[in-house]
Amino acid sequence: MPLPNLIIGMLKLSRSLTVEINSLFQKVFKLKEISKQAFSFARKKMNPLVFAGLHKVIVNGYYADEYKKYKDQYLVFACDGTGLQLPMSKEIICEYGCPSTQNGSTGRPVGNLSVLYDIYNKIIVNGILKPYAYSEKAMAEEQISYIRKIQNLRGKKIIILFDRGYPSMNLITKLVQNKINFIIRYPKNRNKDIQIASKRPDYDKLKQVKFSKDMLKNNEFLRKYARENNNKISLRFISGRFSDKEIAVFITNLNSQEINREEIIELYRTRWQIETEIKYLKGSGEIENLACKTVSNLKQEIYCKILSLNLSEVLIEEAQEIVDKKVKSGDIKTKYELKVNRNVALGTIKEALPDIIWNGWKSFGDINNNPLTDLILQISKNTCPVKKNRVFERKPPAQKRTYNIQQRKAC
Question: What is the rounded distance in angstroms from the CA atom of residue 407 to the CA atom of residue 311?
Answer without folding.
Answer: 26
